[in-house]
Structure formats: C-alpha cells, structure tokens
Design a protein that fits this description.
heterodimer, A: mainly alpha, 2 domains, about 0% strand, B: mainly beta, Rieske Iron-sulfur Protein, four-stranded antiparallel β-sheet, globular
C-alpha cells in the first residue's frame, strides 16, 4: 500500500479560482439539496429548544476543565499530573470544537446569550475568529463539499496523508489558525475570507481577533516571566496536545466521500460512537442528519436518526470501521483521480440527483 | 384599500407555527403566534432564498432551516446572522375563521 507519490495534480480548492466558476455553471452553488421526509409535527418536536441539556453539559464541561486543570497544576513535576493534563487537553482542545459548532448554529441553548457566550469561549479555545467562522460555516452548510465553494473541506484530493496525520497534534493547523487571527487583528482578510464575510461584519472580526491574540500573547508572556510551561499548558497549548479527539471525529464527517453532489447522504458520514466520544463531540457523529436538518439541536439527533435511517445509507457501526473504509479510500485517492466512496442507499430510500454521483460526471481532471 | 387574499382556515396553522403560501408567482410565510394572532412575511430567507416555512417559530422569531438566521416575523427585523436584511411584512387578519393576507 504505497503512500508516496500521487499521479495527478491537486484540485483547486480556493473559493476564487476556476472551480468556483465551474460549480456555479453546473448549478451546484446555493442549490436545492435533498431532505428526507419528516412530518412537520415531528420536526417541530425535534427542533424544540431548551436550555436544560446544554446547561447540564456546559456546567459539567467547565467543572471538569477547572478540576483537571487544577490537578495538573497542583501535581506539576510529577507523573501523576499526566492524566490530568491529558483530560484537560481533550476537554479544552477537542470539546471546544463541538461547543463552537452547536452554539454557532444557535441550537444548543434556547437562550441566545448562552449560545453566544459559549460560542465566543469555544472559538477562543479552538483559535477561530468567531465572526469569520460563522460565515465560513454558513457557506459549508450551503455548499457542503462543493469544490470552489466550501471553505471547510478538511481532506482535499489527492489527500496529503502525512499532513492529515500531523493534524492529530495540531500541526500545522494551530500556527495557521493563529496566523489568520494575527492577520485579522491587523485588519487584513484573505481572498477566501473576503468571499464569504460581508464587509459590514469585518470590524467585529477584527475586534475579536485582537482580543484572542492578546490573551494568547499574555499566556506566552506569563510563561516567559515565570519561566514555566504551565501558562501554555492551560491556554493555547491544549490546541496541540489535546486536539486529537477533534481530528479523530472530524475527519470522519466527510473524508473519502463524494464531492460535488447535492445529497448529504452521499457526502457525509454517520458513525455510531461510544458515549464518551459522543459527549465530547455533542452527537455530531450523526453528521448526515445534522447537515440535512441543521436546526435540530445536538441532543435530539439520536431521535432524528431513528426517524429517518430507513432513508439513509447504513451508519458505520464504529469509529474503527469508519476509519477502515476511509483510510482505504484516501490511500486509493492518492493514486486514482476521481475515486471516492460511493454510498449505497437502502431500497427504502428515495434517490436524488444520482446523475451528480455517477462516475461520468465526477471530475477526472481539474478545471481548466 | 388592500386586496385581501384568502390563505386557509384559521385552524390549519397551529399556534406558534408557520405555513408556506404561494400566490401569483410569489411565495410567502404565514404565521400564528401563541395568542392565535396571524402575521405574514416574504416566504424566503433574505440570506439565501430558503423557504422559512420549514423553519422554527420561537416566540416572535422565525429561524431559517438552513443557516439558523432569525427574523422577528411581526416586524420583519433580521435578528441573527447570517440573516442581515429584514423581511418584508404584509397585513394579515382572520375573517370568519379564514386567514387572509394583503400581499
């Protein structure tokens, strides 16, 4: 199973290049996507908002962060500190992603200010500009895995497997993310950011970037002044040593599946997971369901899954199984242009725009 | 004098809910609040042309089903990004158990 060498050039995943024009010309931009039929009455029950589940989970999250952080500091210098830092790292550097995501959608809590404050806190932890990424994620939902339109495609073709593996320790992502915050703090935005962030929103993006950069620089300064790693173990560092669970679960969302289709059943993956990972990940393992109905809160996704699974490809039964199929696909994508895991719909499912899923319409050469 | 258009029977919309209403080549969203009063707005989100009738009515707000942008459906005001542009609103009333809108 050779990893070295690919046989074709990388597709252009920028939002301002020829793939953008190609996506628009093919009718893939801001298109009509497939939705499973759910009776309005049941959908209203699923969409219902409450503060209870997210308050419980957030109080537990913050309490565990405080307890494990305090334990790590108290036992610093002893091997007994290691499990505390391992737990703190995941709670900070991985759980932040799902809190960022759900509160960004505004579905975690019923009360808006709770969504907003947890969103800001989680954005800081995950080192994302809270304004820019709200717009980036809106685009990801409009044009999911549409090349030239979606700014959040994690695994591009041909896949860079070594680079993907490095993401498990936050590299080079953490530096790339910090560089973006730094650039935003200076009032600068890249061409892709200018494509999806309205001009009126940019002053707010600059404001939050400056605050986030200042806090991270203060942690670096505190580490230098105290000549101790503890400030960086508490702030910023977990984005490196605790980010592995975020990447472990996040890569499965779309990795190895179809690009340029208008059906989330074909480009997203639902994976049944253990309860600890589901708590850290706030049920985003039900990823097809989330993309199809993003207004359903995380705590209702298992019920939504039960309601529509007859219309979905079978869920992967475990992370191990999902990784098995995804890694095989990524390795094959290194060599074989246009290869992807083709999802098979069950006989009870309604097909939709199958033409986009056909081999003949999958791009085999980058757009000219 | 506005031209009132018949939409449906009053009880065809649950309280705190919304339906889609297409008329004369345009699409609208017609709402009932928790007191039973009726309201009408344009039917598509001003952000990306998604039918609001598939969204969630929560107090005085309608949440877009695709990006969770929110509007006050009584005033049309955009309340939450990515919705930034207000919705147009139209008069609505109940006459003899029927909902009518002036669009």
């Amino acid at each position: 199973m050779a990893l070295a060498g690919t046989t074709y050039p990388k597709r252009d995943y920028s939002l301002t290049g020829p793939e953008r024009e190609r996506a628009i010309a093919r009718g893939l931009a801001s298109a009509e996507w497939y939705h499973s039929d759910v009776p309005r009455k049941e959908m209203k029950t699923l969409m219902k908002r409450s503060d209870g589940p997210a308050l419980r989970d957030t109080v537990l999250w913050l309490a565990l962060l405080a307890a494990t952080g305090a334990g790590g500091v108290a036992l610093w210098g002893s091997w007994w500190a290691v499990p505390f830092w391992l737990a703190y790292g995941v709670l900070y550097g991985s759980a932040c992603d799902s809190r960022w995501h759900e509160c960004g959608h505004g579905t975690a809590f019923r009360t808006d200010w709770m969504n907003d404050w947890v969103y800001i806190l989680a954005s800081f932890m995950v080192m994302r500009n809270p304004v820019s990424w709200r717009w980036s994620h809106a685009r990801h939902h409009t044009d999911t895995i549409i090349v030239g339109r979606d700014p959040e495609i994690a695994v591009m073709r041909p896949p860079e497997i070594a680079r993907t593996a490095l993401a498990f320790i936050g590299l080079p992502d953490v530096f790339r993310h910090f560089a973006v915050l730094w650039r935003n703090a200076l009032g600068r935005f890249g061409p892709d950011e200018r494509d999806y962030i309205p001009e009126a929103e940019r002053p707010r993006a600059i404001f939050w970037a400056r605050i986030f950069v200042a806090i991270h620089l203060a942690a670096v300064l505190a580490a230098l002044l105290s000549w101790s790693l503890i400030p960086l173990m508490l702030v910023g560092g977990p984005r490196i040593y605790g980010t592995w669970h975020m990447v472990l679960t996040g890569l499965l969302q779309h990795g190895g599946l179809a690009e340029d289709v208008l059906d989330h059943r074909l480009n997203s993956r639902t994976v049944l997971m253990n309860p600890v990972s589901r708590w850290i990940y706030w049920n985003m393992n039900y990823h097809v369901e989330h993309h199809m109905f993003p207004m359903v809160p995380y705590h209702a996704l298992p019920r939504l899954h039960a309601l529509i699974r007859h219309d979905l490809p079978p869920a992967n039964r475990s992370m191990a199984e999902a990784y098995g199929e995804m890694i095989r696909a990524l390795v094959r994508q290194r060599r074989e242009k246009g290869y992807y895991l083709r999802r098979t719909l069950p006989p009870t499912a309604r097909p939709y725009r199958e033409d986009l899923h056909d081999d003949a319409s999958v791009p085999r050469t980058p757009a000219a | 004098m506005p031209d009132w258009v018949d939409v449906c029977a009053e009880d065809e919309i649950e309280e705190e809910d919304v339906i889609r209403f297409d008329h004369d080549g345009r699409t609208f969203a017609v709402y009932r609040d928790e007191t039973g009063a009726v309201f009408c707005t344009d039917g598509l989100c001003t952000h990306e042309q998604v039918h609001l009738a598939d969204g969630l009515v929560l107090d005085d707000t309608i949440e877009c089903p695709r990006h969770n942008g929110r509007f006050n459906y009584k005033t049309g005001a955009a309340l939450r990004t990515p919705a930034c542009v207000a919705l147009a609103t139209y008069p609505a009333r109940i006459v003899a158990g029927r909902i009518e809108v002036a669009v």
